[in-house]
Amino acid sequence: MCTDPASDPIGYYNLLMIKNPHWKQLRAFLTPSLSLAKIKKMHLLVDQIGQDMLSYVETLPEKRPQVREIELKELCAQFTTDVIASTFFGIRSCCLSQEESEFRYYGRKIFEYGARRGVTMASFFFMPELVPYLKFKLFPRDTEQFLRVIIQREMERREASGEKRGDFIDSLISLKSNDATIGVKEKIPLKDDILVAQAATFYMASFETTSSVLSFTLYELTKNPSIQQRLREEICAAIGRNQGGPDLPYECIVNELPYLGAVISEAARLYPVLPFLERQCSLPEGATGYKLEPFHDFVIPNKMPVLIPIYAIHRDPKFFPDPLRFNPERFSKENLDKIVPCSYMPFGVGPRTCLGSHFGTLQVKVAIVRLLSRYRLMCSESTPKTLTYRKNAFTLCSNEGLFANLVEDKLF
């Protein structure tokens, strides 16, 4: 997967696309932004957005007393976009309260797949040598300009005021003020569009991946009331241990809800955000290929792209018996050792595994705890029994809306 640094610097220099050695250097610069200590500090902001989500749900019309129907994909995208805007950029995007929020509008445009957009994304994977000539861009031009304006404006405001929030924008300001560079022979300063590229990475990856996992998890809970009931009992017990309110502390969310963790892991198995991973065979100078013996006699040539079919592996009965059944027990403490290494990789695998996996999981947990503390999820007339997926999207995206009824049923 590759784009062109001259015609598409924001696409090329983002962490999802860039190659070594630049990737390794950039990741080292950005990793502290998502340390566990930073994530813990962001928990209260995430939980506040969770409360905003409940306030939004209360404004929806009732189908009948205490029952509201909602489309889960859009609700989850609004929630995660508000979270990213608040925690990473220090901005209130108001996606949950404003129907035409700019943050949601431009985020949605990244994942709109018309014919041209489909050809553009396919070229990054399968025809990278044509990208410089066709001048394809990873982000739509108006989305680039939107991000460029808000990031530069917020950075300039903080530099002038001296305000520090300890968030992602502060990390970008630090890189700029310390004259950070990437590159070995040619030193490339981290400034202007290269800094915007890092913000664009988290803007694109964070809300789409997290909202996808969250919406598919809620969809499966809707279809599996016994699993949902067990999870609500776990949440109720946690609320009881913490003074009887839904404002669960960070340590409780992370460490005291094992069944919730298993439910999310099973949803990520059935519905991996990226149906496949793209990697490239990189060998020491002079090596001609990578041998697969004793498993196969094929030799992978140096520089050959390798596509790893995550969706197929996650649903292979060799690794997960009865693979189409939603069964969180696969990820119970007693069964974790049975999972074959590299057969489960919703966040990728190896050095390039997702940098934001812990933060994404925290968002999903907070949203589910908030929703299930007040509502039961039930099938509506519009809830799809089975799902089909868009063929021209590079993330797993259902053709059907994920509808559910929210039935008021407070746990406290």
Automatic annotation (TrEMBL):
InterPro entries according to UniProt: Cyt_P450, Cyt_P450_CS, Cyt_P450_E_grp-I, Cyt_P450_sf, Insect_CytP450_Detox
Membrane topology summary: Peripheral membrane protein
Alphabetic keyword roster: Endoplasmic reticulum, Heme, Iron, Membrane, Metal-binding, Microsome, Monooxygenase, Oxidoreductase
The protein, known as: Cytochrome P450 6g1
Cofactor(s) this protein cannot do without: heme
Signal peptide stretch: none
Similarity-based family: Belongs to the cytochrome P450 family.
Localization: Endoplasmic reticulum membrane; Microsome membrane
Keyword Oxidoreductase: yes
GO cellular component terms listed in the entry, alphabetical order: endoplasmic reticulum membrane
UniProt binding sites for heme: C354
Superkingdom as given in the UniProt entry: Eukaryota
GO terms of molecular function: heme binding; iron ion binding; monooxygenase activity; oxidoreductase activity, acting on paired donors, with incorporation or reduction of molecular oxygen
